[in-house]
């Protein structure tokens, strides 16, 4: 609710009001990572670079709070976008103290028997630039895969492109994410010719769920809700869709219908929700809104259908996957390929569960 209120104030050009709402959200719940990021984003949009940087630093400086992955990525992306490469290098050094990286093996035969662990931190390794970080970090690798965004820029200013070029010279195959800024045109990242740029696509399966409205109309959606909540000990984190469910749960409600905005259209993401919830596309969302206007006591019954295979059409480029054209070198088509990037099952650490909220127990 606080985010919607802040966005409304911004649309009405009441920037001081938006600031006040975001600061209040941070004051009430300082672990609310998303609020810190939105506050910094607002300041940056007003060309208040130092204010935005101070917000990130203030969040990091709180020793009692760990720094979620979203804030790390946002802060690094902020410095890269500002062209502050020395600051970015220093920031990477600070974050790498607690980061472990697996060193990939050149031979698959011996890879699993002798998989060494390589640790980088600001005491053991000093990187003169992020370009050196990319190339030095790939020593002994055959393939280097990076999921980093930040937009595209001329190659001589693109630290990832510079580092990847050094890797290419050493025979390392480099592939990078196209970015998650779609469906906006010309929103690609990592467009250098020596990088394989990978976009995201949907799968040939859905995780269906249904809602029967009080007027008898049945609508389809998706959900990964499986009958049991993800626990009570959590704080808000990196998934606004799931956070909405937490708000619904906190006010005593038992279920949620989540409709897409025009930006996401009909593409559905099956989230692991905190309570029974069904995500629906924009068209069905509009149908539900009309029903809410007509019925004084609206209600709905939710059911969950599990996995459905052989969905058509598939694959389809995901709505969030960054789009071309390549603004740096228009003659080179980017992205090069697309791969599965929506509703992917994966293991989760103890710090982050599948909801995107910080949890106590690991989730698989």
Care to give the gist of this entry?
This is Subtilisin-like protease SBT1.8. The protein has 364 residues and is an alpha/beta fold.
Structure description:
Helix 1 (2-11) packs antiparallel against helix 2 (15-28), helix 3 runs antiparallel to helix 4 and helix 8 (130-137) runs parallel beside helix 9 (159-169). The protein has a 4-stranded parallel sheet with strand order 3-4-5-11. The protein has a 3-stranded antiparallel sheet with strand order 7-6-10. It is α/β, with parallel strands linked by helices and 364 residues long. The model is unreliable at 98-130, 229-238 and 358-364 (pLDDT under 50). The chain contains 11 helices and 11 strands. The relative contact order is 0.12.
In terms of DSSP E residues, the strand content is 15-25%
Structural class: alpha/beta
Determine and state the CATH class of the largest domain. Alpha Beta
Q: What composes the largest sheet?
A: 4 strands, parallel
Question: Which blocks of ≥5 consecutive residues have pLDDT under 50?
Answer: 98-130, 229-238, 358-364
Per CATH, the architecture of the largest domain is: 3-Layer(aba) Sandwich
| Number of strand elements | 11
**CATH fold category name of the largest domain:** Rossmann fold
What is the terminal-to-terminal distance?
A: 30 Å
Number of domains: 3
Mean pLDDT reading:
72
CATH evolutionary superfamily of the largest domain: Peptidase S8/S53 domain
Q: What is the alpha-carbon Rg in Å?
A: 22 Å
What level of helicity do the residues show? 25-40%
Q: Which sequence of strands runs across the widest sheet?
A: 3-4-5-11
Compute the number of helices: 11
* SSE pattern, N- to C-terminal: HHHHHHEHEHEHEEEEHEEHEE
Which geometry do the CA atoms define? globular
Keywords: Hydrolase, Protease, Signal
GO molecular function: serine-type endopeptidase activity
Organism: Tanacetum cinerariifolium
InterPro entries: Peptidase_S8/S53_dom, Peptidase_S8/S53_dom_sf, SBT, TPR-like_helical_dom_sf
């Amino acid at each position: 609710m606080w985010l919607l209120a802040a966005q409304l104030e911004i649309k009405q050009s009441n920037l001081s009001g938006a600031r006040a709402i975001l600061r209040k959200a941070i004051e009430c719940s300082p672990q609310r990572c998303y609020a810190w990021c939105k506050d910094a984003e607002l300041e940056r949009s007003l060309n208040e670079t130092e204010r935005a940087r101070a917000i990130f630093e203030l969040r990091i400086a709180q020793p009692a709070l760990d720094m979620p992955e979203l804030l790390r990525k946002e802060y690094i992306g902020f410095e890269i976008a500002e062209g502050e490469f020395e600051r970015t290098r220093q920031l990477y050094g600070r974050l790498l103290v607690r980061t472990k990286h697996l060193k990939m093996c050149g031979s698959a035969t011996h890879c699993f028997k002798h998989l060494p662990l390589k640790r980088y931190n600001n005491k053991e390794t000093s990187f003169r630039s992020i370009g050196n970080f990319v190339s030095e970090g790939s020593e002994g690798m055959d393939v280097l895969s990076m999921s980093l965004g930040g937009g595209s820029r001329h190659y001589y200013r693109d630290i990832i492109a510079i580092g990847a070029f050094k890797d290419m010279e050493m025979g390392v195959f480099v592939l990078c994410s196209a970015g998650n800024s779609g469906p906006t045109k010309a929103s690609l990242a990592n467009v250098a010719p020596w990088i394989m740029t990978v976009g995201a696509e949907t799968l040939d399966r859905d995780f269906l769920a249904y809602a029967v409205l009080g007027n008898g109309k049945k609508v389809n959606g998706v959900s990964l809700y499986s009958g049991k909540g993800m626990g009570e000990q959590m704080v808000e984190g990196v998934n606004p869709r799931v956070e909405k469910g937490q708000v619904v749960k906190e006010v005593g409600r038992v279920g949620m219908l989540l409709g897409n905005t025009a930006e996401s259209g009909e593409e559905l993401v099956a989230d692991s929700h905190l309570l029974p919830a069904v995500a629906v596309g924009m068209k069905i969302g509009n149908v539900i809104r009309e029903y809410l206007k007509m019925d004084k006591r609206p209600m709905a019954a939710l059911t969950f259908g599990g996995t459905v295979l052989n969905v058509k059409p598939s694959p389809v480029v995901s709505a969030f996957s960054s789009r071309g054209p390549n603004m740096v070198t228009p003659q080179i088509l980017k992205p090069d390929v697309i791969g599965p990037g929506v509703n992917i099952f994966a293991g989760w650490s103890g710090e982050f569960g599948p909801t995107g909220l910080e949890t106590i127990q690991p989730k698989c």
